[in-house]
Specification:
Shape of chain B: globular
Number of helices of chain B: 0
Strand content of chain B: over 45%
Largest sheet of chain B: 6 strands, mixed
Largest interface: A-B, 20 and 19 residues
Largest sheet of chain A: 7 strands, mixed
Oligomer: heterodimer
Order of helices and strands of chain A: EEEEEEEEEEE
Radius of gyration of chain A: 13 Å
């Protein structure tokens, strides 16, 4: 089993709230990723990181931000949640030089 | 054209059947390919890597055809538990892995 964790697993929140989705991995992986996935739809990359102090935007425009202060931690923040942010958010990591990704269990976000 | 394309299906097959999926990619410089399995409302999990020489793991066989730019996944003797969405992924070097939309497989009794 992959050692990558996401909290919370489920979150229901009102419009305008600030939220942070947590992602941690204990495998020492340099690369980390955030994906957004709606039910039955494809994964969309929204952010990624090659290592500490490295963050990049992905293919899908997102109003979220990320930080990478520690290797094992890659939190995603929404400053002001909206109903359009309702989705599943999946965090993943991979070892630098290798492309196999390990995914966390996901956070299912509902914004009312 | 999308970088990675898959037939979304669903593929409906009876138990015991052999089923094959293809996935085409557009970047000829791609180096690594993978198949992931994703169950409903769960995270993707690595099923197998795809090597140029092919790769077999039990009932599952993956092939890579660089000339025609596609990879394939063959499942023999399908089980009910094989029902899932199968995601094709291409990556390479500094490329960020790119996922296909996935192919849905439904195995029925």
């Amino acid at each position: 089993e992959a050692d990558i964790y996401q909290t919370p697993r489920y979150l229901v929140i009102g419009t305008g709230k600030k939220i942070t989705l947590e992602c941690s991995q204990t495998m020492g992986h340099d690369k980390m990723y955030w994906y957004q996935q709606d039910p039955g739809m494809e994964l969309h990359l929204i952010h990624y990181s090659y290592g500490v102090n490295s963050t990049e935007k992905g293919d899908l425009s997102s109003e979220s931000t990320v930080s990478r202060i520690r290797t094992e931690h890659f939190p995603l923040t929404l400053e002001s949640a909206r109903p359009s942010h309702t989705s599943q958010y999946l965090c993943a990591s991979s070892e630098y030089g290798y492309n196999e990704q390990f995914f966390g269990p996901g956070t299912r976000l509902t914004v009312l | 054209r999308k970088e990675v394309e898959q037939d979304p299906g669903p593929f409906n097959v009876p138990e015991g059947a052999t089923v094959a999926f293809n996935c085409t990619y557009s970047n000829s410089a791609s180096q690594s390919f993978f198949w992931y399995r994703q169950d409903c409302r769960k995270e993707p999990k690595l099923l197998m890597s795809v090597y140029s020489s092919g790769n077999e793991d039990g009932r599952f066989t993956a092939q890579l055809n660089r000339a025609s730019q596609y990879i394939s996944l063959l499942i023999r003797d399908s089980k009910l538990s094989d029902s899932a969405t199968y995601l094709c992924v291409r990556a390479g070097g500094s490329y960020i892995p790119t996922f296909g939309r996935g192919t849905s497989l439904i195995v029925h009794p």
